[in-house]
Amino acid sequence: MTEKKVLLTIFGATGDLAYRKLYPSLFRLYRKGSLQNNFAIIGTARREWSDEHFRAVVQKSISDLDPTSAEAQSFASHFYYQSHDVQDPEHYITLKKLSDTLDAKYDLAGNRLFYLAMSPSFFGVIVKELKAQGMTDTKGFHRVVIEKPFGSDLASATALNQAITATFDESEIYRIDHYLGKEMIQNISAIRFGNNLFESLWNNRYIANVQINLAESLGVEDRGGYYDKSGALKDMVQNHILQILSLLLMEPPAAFCDEEIRTEKIKALNAVRIYTPEEVNRYFVRGQYAPGRINGSDYVGYREEANVAPDSTTETFVAGRFTVDNFRWSGVPIYIRTGKRLTEKGTRINIVFKQVPINLFKTDVHKDCPERELPENVLTIYIQPTEGFSLTLNGKEIGADFKTTPVKLDYRHSAETVENSPEAYERLILDVLNGDSTNFTHWDEVAQSWRIVDAIRHTWDEETADFPNYPAGTMGPKAAFELVEKDGFNWIWEPEEWYRNRGLL
C-alpha cells in the first residue's frame, strides 16, 4: 500500500469523536501501511495538554485494537499537541510555526489536511485564519474535512459554505457523512449496477415501493442538549437518509468515479419533489417518545431525559413518503422511517417489487384462489447491526398440496469478514488522503437536501405538535403505519410484532 505524506491538524482533538473514531481509524491506516514514517498529527483544543499527555490519550484510544507496546509508542510519537483558541489570531501564528517545523522534520512535501471536529459555528473563523497565516500556501495539497451538521437550514448552510469556499476550493472540501463509508451503503451500487437481474427491474414498471429504515433503540443518552435543538428531521433525514435515497435513485454513472457519481446523485435529489404545506401534512409524520417498557426494562419519555426541556416539541421520530418526479421513479412511493427509542436498532432498505398480475395457483378454472395475491418479492439490504442482503421469493411449500410459501435467500457477512473490513472513518480518511471525494457530499447535494427538509420544517414550525405520541419501545406513532397502509402497503420490517407476539412489549 502506498504511503501517504501528510500533516493532519485536528481541531477539537480532545473531543469524543477524535477519541472514539479518528485515532483508532488513523492507527488502522498506520498498521496497514497507508501512514508510515512521513506523517505527523497536530491536535488542537483549549485544554492545556502536553505532547506526552496527548500521546498517552491516543495510546489509550487504540488499546482495543491490541497494538504491541512498541507499535503503540511508534504511532503515538507522530502526535503533537498545541493548546489553541480558535478565535485568537495569535494562536494561528504558533500553529503555523509548529506546522512548518513538522513539515521539515517528516518530509511532508507541504501536504496539509485540516479536520474540523468541533462546532460548525467555528468553521468560518478557522478557515479564515488558516488562509490569513499562509497555512494553505504550501506546495502540496490542502484539504479540509467538515463534520455534520452542515448548517441548520439552507440559509445558514449557504453562509457557512461561502465562508469555507473563501479559503478552499470545492474540490478541497470533504463534507463527511460516516454512513457513506459503511460497507453495505457502498454495496448498494454493486448490487444495482453489477447485476442485470436487479438493474433491469430498477424502475417504476417493477418496483411497488422503497422503504428506508434507520431505527435506534437508544434514547438521546447524553446528547439531550444538542438533540433538543436539532431533532430527527435535521439529525437523520437531511443527511443520512437523503444520501441513501440518492444512491438508490440515481441513474447509472458513465464511470464509477467521484465526478460522475456526484452528477447522478445531484440529478436524483433534484427530482425529489419539494412539498407544499398541504403535502407535508399528507405525507409526513413526526413523533416523540413517551415512557415505555420493552423486554422487562422501563424507559423514561423524551421530556424526562437530561438537558431536555420539560415541554419540548422536538421530534424524535420521522416517517414520510417522498415523491420522485422523473421517468424512472414516477409513481413509486419512497417511504422513510427513523427514530429514537424504537423497538430494535437497525438500518435496512427494502425494495418491494410489484406482485404478479394474478395468483393462478388454483385447481379449478371456475373457482377463485383463497389468496388472491401472492406475497411480494423483497430485496433487503442490511446496513447495521448486521451487513448483507436477502431476497424473498415465492416457492412451493413441501407437501402433497400445491401451496406457495415465501422463501428467503439470505447472505450476511461472517464475523471474520466484518472484522477485517475497514471501519467507516478509516475508509473515508483514506479517501481524503487519496483525493477521492466519491463518498463525500458535494455542496449542491447539501443545498438541495436542505431545500427538501426546510419545506417540511417550516410547515411543522407553524403547527403545534401533539407530543408525546408513541411509547418507548414501539416503532413509532400510529400515523406512521397509516401513512403506508392508505397506499395499500405495509412496513416490511416489523420488529414490534416479534416482541408483542412473545409478550415482551
Strand content: 15-25%
Q: How many strands in all? A: 18
CATH topology (fold) name of the largest domain: Dihydrodipicolinate Reductase, domain 2
How many distinct helices? 17
Domains (count)? 2
Distance between the termini: 51 Å
Q: What does the radius of gyration come to?
A: 25 Å
Largest sheet: 8 strands, mixed
Instruction: Assign the CATH class of the largest domain.
Output: Alpha Beta
The portion of residues assigned to helices is 25-40%
Strand order of the largest sheet: 8-12-13-7-14-15-16-17
| Poorly predicted parts | none
* Average of the residue pLDDT scores: 91
Can you tell me the overall shape? globular
Q: Please state the structural category.
A: alpha/beta
CATH superfamily of the largest domain: Dihydrodipicolinate Reductase, domain 2
Q: Do you know the CATH architecture of the largest domain?
A: 2-Layer Sandwich
Would you give an account of this structure?
- There is one protein chain.
- The protein is of the alpha/beta class and 505 residues long.
- It has two domains: 142 residues, Rossmann fold (3-Layer(aba) Sandwich); 243 residues, 2-Layer Sandwich (Dihydrodipicolinate Reductase, domain 2).
- It contains 17 helices and 18 strands.
- An eight-stranded mixed beta sheet has the order 8-12-13-7-14-15-16-17, sandwiched between helices. A six-stranded parallel beta sheet has the order 3-2-1-4-5-6, with helices on both faces. A two-stranded parallel sheet has the order 9-18.
- α6 packs antiparallel against α15 and α10 crosses α11.
- The mean pLDDT is 91.
